[in-house]
Each structure stands twice: as structure tokens, then as C-alpha cells.
Design a protein that fits this description.
Low-confidence stretches: 1-48, 410-429, 435-473
Number of helices: 7
Distance between the termini: 32 Å
Radius of gyration: 24 Å
Length: 473
């Protein structure tokens, strides 16, 4: 998702017009604490507020085969590890957590919290993390993994990847799925049985809060750095030489580096007109195993299984006006509520009135208000919070909170043994897990997948009719 932010000089007390857009909760991207510049009266700029890593999916690299048992028959899919290239340097290895959704070729992904994905409402999400921590590639001694899991025979890398993915799918998608290779299937059964709930990992890098506000002549902040990296790089805004805006510590000293827990401030000159600035921090670190990665192109959600030293970043915004209300706007996707939470804080000394999604809200001086904008699953959104006198912020993105199986109500069957079930009829082959992730042409999906797609389309049509009926009523 992206954020478009513009500011105009405000006239009169309580003046502030803001347009609210959706924040990207975490983005695998190059992290440089460098402001993107400032926005002055009449300027319009982009102020993405990203945390973590941003990457492009390269494809399914280490994998075997699995079979999904469905009410309409069996479907064969590829199962294993994906590889992603991190913007700014680094590689990630991931498994998918949405078996019926294909990957899109060269899809862009960003790091995010579980709450912005189907994992947020999944009681077994912590078990998926346990599987990641106790299997391949975190455990890359395959002989030891073979012995630990009680596998008869010897696991190959392909077996280990396929078995791990199958165990994850059983918890992420609640589907009846088996690995075709006997060793991979034995590993999947072991991991599924032994998995225990583990707490969600922290982001590789964040800035808290994502936006600050105040008066010209003040130090706006603090913004706290939270990271597992040894340190982060801090840079001033691109136009610092002409704008006079600086990134400083609590004593007003310029800051070029910071550590976990460090406090950063945006120092704005006394004579600055109403405007905005963006600051970004950058670090190199291994992204924590279990972090979720999502795409805005409806490419299947991924969960991190391993990371090289990778470039990560986080951004925060700052805004200021010389009088009246001072808006500080942020947003995050909230899958538990089925929408986007937009938080509007008023750092000024006069009430702030704004419009969002057709409703008007007023925030008292020194207070804040969070409004949840309800959204349909898998539908792009684009909305704006608007206040008086031209201050705007816009949010765009797409809510992806449910697996495809959950959306269409796919039924599952119970697994009966540790080895693949003999098939009475040929298995329909599809490459749902790898579709679009490489240059290979996808296999044709069978009847079961066709029914899933048709069922999903029917639900969408029904939902749209119900929505239309509700509005007309």
C-alpha cells in the first residue's frame, strides 16, 4: 500500500485538512534514515511509512510434490521453499501460507505483522513458527533432522522443504494435504504433531510512532528506533541544506547513527511554513524467522524461513503548523476487524475536524481518535481523510486477510496415515504454489480448483449484491 501526503499553509486556528491513506505495516526495503524532503504550502509528496524488508519474489527454488485431497478429487501441487531478492541487498527464503492462491511473477513483497494477514486470526500461527524454527532450512543438518523426526530413510533438501511446507499448510489453510515422497510425508507428520505455539517475532526494524507533529521551532518527537540490528544509519532530509530541518537527539545534537531504543527528533526552524518531512532509517540484519510477507498484487502470502544479512528500513513522517490544530495521521490494516484502522492525533491547541469514509469526526486538542474503515476482502481501497484548509493524506492498498480456502469454504478430509494415500485415479496436477513465481508455464488446474474459483466468484457476486441491496435499503 502507499501513502500520499500533502500539506498547505493553514489559515486560522483549528485549520488542518488531512487525507488519510493506508500505511504499509512492514516493507522489505533499503532502510536509510533520510527524509524524503519537506512539503511546504501547496506541495504534494509521498510519505510511505514502511517497516522492515522489501523484496521481489524470484520463484520456487527447493521443492517436492504434494497432493491436496478435496471433495471434487485430488490435485497435485509443488511444495517447498521460495526465494526472494531484497531491495538493497540480501536474500530471503519463505514458505507460503495460502495454498490455493498462486504467486505472481516478480511480485513485490513487504514485511508485515501477522495482524495484517490471515495469520492474525489463525490460532495455529504460533505452531507454524515452531515448525519453521525446528525444520529446514533453520535445521540444515539433514541427517540430524532425519533422526530427530524418526524418518525411515534419508531426507534430501527437496524432501525437507516439501515436508515442512505440507506441515505448514495443515495449520495455515486447514487442508487435507500430503507429501508424495514418503520421507517428506513422515517429516510433515512429525512437525504437525510436535508443533507448539510460539510468540510472534518482532519486526526487523520499526520507528515508533510512525508520525509526529508540532510547531515550527520545536523538536518533533521522539521517534524511537526498535531493531535487532547492531545499529542504524540516520540521514537528514534531502533538502536539509536549504530547509534547515535536522534530525537530532534530545539535546539538539545532530544524529547520524542510532541503536535499538534510540530517540530521534525532527528539528524544524522557527520560520518554517506549514509542511511535512519524512525520515528513514537503514540497517543490515537478518530478518527474524516467522515474519510475514505480503504483496499488493494478490500474490500468495509468505512466511519467512531464513534470511541472509539483508537491508531493512523504516520511515516516519513529521508535520507542523504555526497555529491551531496539528494533525498526525497513521493507519494500519486490521484483519481482526476486517478493515484499516486510521488514527488521527491532534497535537495542536484547537479542535480538529476531519472527514473519513463519508463521516465527520472531531478530535480535541491533545487527543486522538481511531476510526476503522471496513473493507471487502481482496478488493483494492483508496480513501482520504480530509480536514479544513487543504491538509490531506491518502491511503491505498488491498486487504488480504483470509486464505482462499477460508474465503470459499473449502471442506477438508482427515489424514489417515503417515504415508501418501494410494490414488485410485490419476492425480490432477497444478502448480498453484509456483504459478507466476518463475518463467515456467503453469500446469492446468483440475476440476477441484475450477470449482473453487467458480465458488469464489459466486461469493463475490453475492456479496456485491448484498452490499448494493444494503445501500439501497
Amino acid at each position: 500500500m502507499s501513502v500520499s501526503f500533502s500539506a498547505r499553509r493553514l489559515r486560522g486556528r483549528g485549520s488542518a485538512r488531512l487525507a488519510a491513506g493506508t500505511l504499509v505495516t512492514g516493507l522489505v526495503a533499503t532502510t536509510v534514515l533520510a527524509g524524503a524532503g519537506t512539503a511546504t504550502a501547496g506541495d504534494t509528496g509521498t510519505m510511505p511509512q514502511h517497516n522492515g524488508a522489501a523484496a521481489t519474489i524470484d520463484g520456487l527454488k527447493t521443492y517436492g510434490a504434494a497432493v491436496i485431497h478435496g471433495p471434487a478429487g485430488d490435485t497435485q501441487v509443488s511444495a517447498g521453499l521460495f526465494e526472494l531478492s531484497v531491495e538493497g541487498g540480501g536474500m530471503l527464503h519463505t514458505y507460503c501460507v495460502d495454498i490455493h492462491t498462486p504467486t505472481q511473477q516478480d511480485a513485490k513483497y513487504h514485511e508485515t505483522s501477522w495482524s495484517g494477514t490471515s495469520l492474525g486470526a489463525n490460532e495455529d500461527a504460533g505452531r507454524i513458527l515452531w515448525i519453521l524454527e525446528h525444520s529446514y532450512p533453520q535445521v540444515n543438518d539433514l541427517a540430524a533432522l532425519t533422526k530427530k523426526a524418526g524418518v525411515r530413510g534419508q531426507l534430501t533438501e527437496q524432501d525437507a522443504a516439501a515436508g515442512t511446507q505440507v506441515a505448514i499448510w495443515r495449520h495455515s489453510d486447514d487442508v487435507d494435504v500430503e507429501a508424495l515422497d514418503p520421507q517428506a510425508e513422515q517429516l510433515a507428520d512429525y512437525l504437525e504433531k510436535k508443533a507448539r505455539n510460539v510468540a510472534e517475532p518482532q519486526a526487523s526494524l520499526t520507528l515508533d510512532p510512525p508520525v509526529v507533529a508540532g510547531r515550527p521551532g520545536e523538536r518533533l518527537g521522539p521517534v524511537t528506533v526498535r531493531t535487532d540490528a547492531a545499529g542504524v544509519t540516520v540521514s537528514p532530509p534531502a533538502d536539509a541544506a536549504t530547509s534547515g530541518i535536522r534530525i537530532v537527539d534530545a539535546d539538539g545534537e545532530p544524529v547520524t547513527t542510532a541503536r535499538n531504543g534510540g530517540k530521534l527528533f525532527v528539528e524544524v526552524p522557527q520560520d518554517a511554513e506549514a509542511g511535512t518531512a519524512q525520515l528513514t532509517v537503514q540497517a543490515t540484519t537478518s530478518v527474524p524467522v516467522g515474519r510475514a510477507f505480503v504483496s499488493e498484487s494478490r500474490s500468495q502470502t509468505q512466511i519467512l524461513a531464513g534470511s541472509s544479512e539483508s537491508t531493512v528500513s523504516a520511515t516516519a513522517g513529521a508535520s507542523w503548523t504555526e497555529e491551531g490544530a496539528i494533525p498526525a495521521v497513521s493507519a494500519r490494516e486490521n484483519c481482526a476487524k476486517g478493515g484499516v484502522d486510521v488514527t488521527v492525533a491532534n497535537r495542536g491547541d484547537a479542535p480538529l475536524t476531519f472527514e473519513l469514509a463519508g463521516s465527520e469526526h472531531t478530535v480535541a486538542a491533545g487527543a486522538s481518535d481511531t476510526v476503522t474503515v471496513p473493507l471487502n476482502e481482496d478488493q483494492p481501497y483508496d480513501f482520504t481523510v480530509e480536514g479544513p484548509d487543504g491538509f490531506q493524506q491518502r491511503f491505498t492498498g488491498m486487504l488480504d486477510c483470509r486464505t482462499r480456502a477460508a474465503e470459499v469454504g473449502t471442506t477438508t478430509q482427515t489424514l489417515t496415515g503417515p504415508t501418501p494415500t494410494p490414488l485410485a485415479a490419476p492425480v490432477t496436477e497444478t502448480n498453484l504454489a509456483a504459478t507466476g513465481a518463475s518463467s515456467a508455464t503453469p500446469w492446468i488446474a483440475g476440476t477441484a480448483i475450477a470449482l473453487v474459483v467458480l465458488g469464489g466468484a459466486g461469493l463475490v457476486i453475492t456479496r456485491q449484491r448484498q452490499d448494493a441491496s444494503g445501500r439501497n435499503g
